[in-house]
Amino acid sequence: MARLSRVAPWLPFPRGLHHDPVRVLVHQDTDALRALIARDRVANVFVDSLLEQNNTAVPSFPGAVMLGFFADDGVSLAAACWVGSNVVPVEATAEHAAAFGRWMVAHWQPHASIFGPAEPTLALMDVLRGAGIEAQEIRANQPLLTISGPPRVEPNPRLAVSVSSQFSEVLVAAAAMFEEEVGYSPFLGGEANYRRRVAWLISHGHSFSDSEPDGEVIFKADLGAVTRHATQVQGVWMNPSHRGLGLGAGYMAAVVLLSQKHAPITSLYVNDYNTRARAVYDRVGFEQVGTFATVLF
C-alpha cells in the first residue's frame, strides 16, 4: 500500500520547517522595492538612485545582486540589501541584516565596504565577524544630516559645476580626498575604474569645484547619489593650503544651492569625531536626522 504524504498538499512547506526569507530580487519585485525605498528617501538615497537609473530591481553591475527579506507569507518585501562592491541595507532591522549576512557568508565575495543606517550595518558585520571575516575599520557613529531650505551663510560664488577640461585636476583632488579618508590610494583598486567614476561624476554634473588660475583645485565635492527627492554629498575636500581660513561654510553653502537644482533635500553623513566638519555643517544649517555606520574592508 502506498504511503500517504505526511504533508498536506495545500501547505507550502513541511510542518516545523520555515521558508528561507532571503532571496535575490527579480524584475517582478521592482514595484515592491520602490515602495520599500519610499519609506525613507534620505536614508535610502543610494539604492533609490540606482533604481531610478536602471528602472528595475535587477542590478546592471556585473556580480551585484539586490537581496530581499520576505515576511512569513513569502510575498511581502520587508527589507532589502544591495550587495555589490559595496553592501547597503534598505529598511532593515538587525534581524533582517543578520539574515542578509548569512547569505553573504554562504556566497562570499570581497567587498569594499558596508554602509547605511547604523543598526543593520553593524548587525551585518557581526555575522561576518562570526564567520571569520574581519574589517579594516568600523566607523560606528556617523551622523546623517540634511538641509532642505536655504543655507544660513552666504554661499561662495566661485564654486561651480566641474567641466571635462578640469578632469585631470579634479582626479588629483578626488584621489587625495580618498586617500585621506580611507588610508590608501583609490588607484590600488584599479586606476581605470576610479578614473571612469570621476569622469562620470563630471559628465553628469555631479562634481562641484573651485580652482586656482593654474587649475589646482581649492575645494571639491560630489553628489554620490542623486534622485528626484534627495541628493547625498560625498567627497568633500579642501586643499591643505586653504584649510583653517574659514572657507568651508561658504563652499558648503554653495554645494547646497547646486545640489538643490537636482532635488529639494541635500544630505550627507560625517564621522562623529570630525568636529571641525560637523561645526561647518551645523553653521550652514544641516540637521541630524539619523545615524549611519560604515565598515571598511
Account of the protein in words:
Helices cover 32% and strands 26% of the residues. The protein is of the alpha+beta class. A twelve-stranded mixed sheet has the order 1-2-3-4-5-12-6-11-10-9-8-7, with helices on both faces. Helix 3 (94-106) links the parallel strand 4 (86-90) and strand 5. Helix 3 (94-106) runs parallel beside helix 4 (118-130). The longest helix is centred in the middle third of the chain and has 16 residues, at 167-182. It is globular and about 60 Å long.
What integer value in Å does the Rg equal? 22 Å
Spell out the helices and strands N to C: EHHEEEHEHEEHHEEEHEHE
Count of DSSP E strands? Answer: 12
Shape: globular
User: What percentage of the residues does DSSP assign to strands (E)?
Assistant: 25-35%
Q: Report how far apart the termini are.
A: 60 Å
What's the average pLDDT? 92
Helix content: 25-40%
Physical arrangement of strands within the biggest beta sheet? 1-2-3-4-5-12-6-11-10-9-8-7
Q: What summary fits the major beta sheet?
A: 12 strands, mixed
Total DSSP helices? 8
Judged by helices, strands and strand pairing, the structural class is alpha+beta
